[in-house]
Design goal:
Number of strands of chain A: 6
Shape of chain A: globular
Structural class of chain A: alpha/beta
Order of helices and strands of chain B: HHHEEHEEEEEEEHEEEHHHEEEEEEEHHE
Low-confidence stretches of chain B: 1-17
Distance between the termini of chain A: 25 Å
Largest sheet of chain B: 6 strands, mixed
Strand content of chain B: 15-25%
Strand order of the largest sheet of chain A: 1-2-3-4-5-6
Radius of gyration of chain A: 13 Å
Distance between the termini of chain B: 84 Å
Number of strands of chain B: 20
Largest sheet of chain A: 6 strands, mixed
Oligomer: heterodimer
Low-confidence stretches of chain A: none
Number of helices of chain A: 3
Radius of gyration of chain B: 63 Å
Helix content of chain B: 40-55%
Largest interface: A-B, 25 and 32 residues
């Protein structure tokens, strides 16, 4: 678990991987331009191990700006399968408004 | 010198300063020393009171010892007198009996004993044991002495017989008789009547002087342990009866009676007090210096903060200048159509943003209105924004339709390589036909206002630019009423943390549908009302209005 705090925005994230070749990143707090680099840096090694699936659990993420969504789209091009799991309604609405629900495989 | 200079600089920079900073140190020092002196005085007084009390007790002890010793003199002289009376003044028997009291050693208090006749003192002693009595050398004193002894039947003390070997003489006449026999004895006193203090005595810590009678003078001094009399300093006095006179003891302390700790306590208090005072003063100096350093640091930080504010303002102004340089200087005006746009930097924005608007005249009849937003901030976002903006100009000039333009834009941005996305809304406006053709690459829908009612135009939303190189887009065409207004904007206008964008969209609709005379006023009001709480994101908004 790592915690970041910049300009009042707080981001925490956890990395885990399961035996079936999928990796899980749980992100909580606020993800914006002040915190995104750290997340990208932390997940880079996970992607470098070529997981079959990358699951981003965003159930506890209160806010994500467009650069965060861009980062997820970038990840989606780097792994065979990406899943944005359980976004809160506000975030779900933003993803939908950008037409990215399918690209990011938002579940449920 | 360097430190002095530094201090002078500080006081010069603080003309309202609190004066000399070390007054507190002086105060601490003065208070500490006063307390120390007070404690020294109190402990000294207590020490002396206690010493004087102990001296009094010791002197009383001496009195008790003397009182216990006096009867041995009295008994020796008295029993010899009784024996002389009983043996009718037999000189031989007297010599033998008195011999036990004369000489040196324990139980022999006298240097000389002699038998006299009361009725004939001038005749001298009948017999003498031990040394020749000194009385014999001053015979004029003898009659009065024996007369007194015969009258009182007490141990009659002749007094001090001074000389190189001083003595004290006593006479006694057996009670119940008028003589004729009197016993006279003399005890030796030490030379010069000085007896060096004995180290094994219980009185080593005091000096005493023993006087005959109640009037202590040099002439009545019998024996002293001090090299000179009268004894200096505080004296305790005790007087005890001795025959027909008295013995007076004066005593002074030779050393501390209560021990060395009470004696040294005032010194210890003084040393500890001074050390504590110095320590407290040093601590105060350190605290003062630390506070001054903190104040200097605070001043320095204030300067840095000022400098930062200045740099921030400068950078913000550079960013805004650059931003405006990348936006169209003026919008093309078409017949029957008002066009207006705003760009607002975020409150915290020192970085240039990736939002933009544009309006391009297409074949003199139509207007291509564009609003877009590149993800992220800074020069990278601005560069991508500029590329997209000029790309749209180029493709529009080629005669491409908006859907084709958007597909082609995907060649300019790739999220895979740059991590950037862009949402773009293209609105092809045909003023004469009152038709709008909308194409969206992941962008928020525009607000269409007609007859005071606002509605977000439903369009198909394609992928943002940069996701898929071959993304395709579908356009939606709507016909508008005369006098209608269209507002296209970026998410900075409606997006707030912790709030659904639907709430922001609703707020926009509410503010945009109240009455406004001109399109310019409408944009001004919408921007100021929706951003009054200070959004940290940039916002671009562009509007068109049909004049009829």
């Amino acid at each position: 678990m790592a915690e970041l705090n910049a300009n009042g925005a707080t981001l925490t994230f956890e990395l885990a991987s399961s035996g079936d070749g999928s990796a899980l990143v749980k992100v909580a707090g606020e993800l914006d331009i002040t915190t995104i680099e750290d997340l990208e840096e932390a997940v880079q090694p996970v992607i470098a191990r070529d997981p079959k699936r990358l699951v981003i659990d965003v159930s506890s993420l209160r806010f994500a700006d467009s650069s965060a969504i861009a980062l997820w789209v970038k990840w989606s091009t780097a792994v065979p399968e990406l899943e944005i799991r359980d976004p809160q309604p506000l975030l779900r609405r933003v993803i939908d408004s950008m037409g990215l629900a399918q690209t990011l495989r938002v579940t449920p | 010198m360097a430190a002095n200079n530094g201090e002078e600089t500080v006081s010069a920079r603080r003309p309202d300063g609190r004066g000399w900073p070390y007054r507190a140190v002086v105060a601490v020092g003065v208070v500490g020393l006063l307390v120390t002196v007070g404690l020294i005085v109190v402990s000294t007084i207590l020490y002396h009171n206690n010493e004087n009390r102990l001296l009094k007790l010791r002197t009383r002890d001496i009195g008790s010892v003397l009182t216990a010793a006096v009867p041995s003199v009295l008994t020796s002289v008295g029993s010899t007198a009784t024996f002389a009376e009983a043996t009718n003044g037999n000189a031989g028997k007297f010599d033998k009996f008195a011999g036990q009291y004369v000489g040196q050693g324990s139980g022999r208090p006298f240097a000389s004993m002699s038998l006299w006749r009361v009725d004939n003192p001038a005749g001298g002693p009948t017999t003498v044991v031990g040394a020749q009595p000194k009385l014999a050398a001053t015979m004029d004193k003898a009659p009065a002495l024996f007369a007194r002894a015969a009258a009182t039947h007490k141990l009659t003390v002749l007094g001090l017989l001074d000389g190189p070997a001083p003595r004290i003489g006593y006479a006694f006449v057996e009670p119940g008789t008028n003589g004729p026999y009197a016993v006279y004895a003399e005890s030796a006193l030490p030379a010069k009547r000085y007896s060096a203090p004995q180290t094994d005595s219980s009185f080593t810590d005091i000096n005493y002087a023993l006087y005959l009678g109640k009037d202590p003078t040099a002439k009545t001094l019998l024996i002293t342990s001090a090299p000179r009399v009268p004894l200096p300093g505080h004296r305790a006095v005790v007087t005890i009866p001795f025959g027909d006179t008295f013995l007076t003891v004066r005593a002074t302390r030779r050393s501390s009676l209560a021990g060395s700790l009470p004696r040294d306590l005032p010194w210890l208090i003084g040393i500890v007090g001074v050390l504590l005072t110095i320590g407290a003063a040093a601590l105060t100096i350190r605290l003062i210096q630390r506070r001054r350093r903190t104040e200097q640091l605070a001043d320095r930080l204030e300067q840095v903060a000022d400098e930062n504010r200045r740099l921030y303002a400068e950078q913000r102004s550079i960013a805004q200048t650059l931003q405006h340089a990348l936006l169209p200087a003026e919008l093309p005006q078409l017949h029957g159509l008002q066009t207006s746009a705003r760009y607002e930097a975020g409150v915290e924005g020192v970085d240039i943003g990736g939002d933009w608007y544009d309006a391009i005249a297409v074949d003199d009849k139509r207007l291509l209105l564009v609003v877009g937003d590149v993800s992220g901030r800074g020069l990278r976002a601005a560069t991508t924004m500029a590329a997209l903006r000029y790309g749209i100009h180029a493709y529009a000039a080629q005669g491409d339709k908006p859907a084709t333009i958007l597909t082609k834009l995907n060649a300019l941005v790739s999220v895979k390589s740059s991590g950037q996305l862009a949402t773009v809304l293209c609105v092809m406006v045909d003023p004469d036909a009152r038709e709008l053709t909308l194409t969206s690459a992941g962008h928020l829908p525009p607000l269409l206002i007609s007859d005071g009612r606002g509605e977000f135009v439903k369009t198909d939303v394609g992928l943002p630019i940069g996701v898929d190189r071959h993304a395709s887009y579908t356009s939606t065409t709507v016909t508008v009423a005369p006098g209608a207004t269209l507002l296209a904007f970026t998410d900075g206008l409606v997006e707030r943390r912790g709030e659904s964008i639907d709430v922001g969209l609703g707020r926009l609709r509410e503010h945009a549908t109240s009455n406004h005379a001109t399109l310019d006023e409408l944009l001004t009001r919408v921007v100021s009302n929706l951003r009054e709480d200070g959004s940290d994101d940039d916002t671009a908004i562009a509007g068109i209005r049909w004049l009829s």
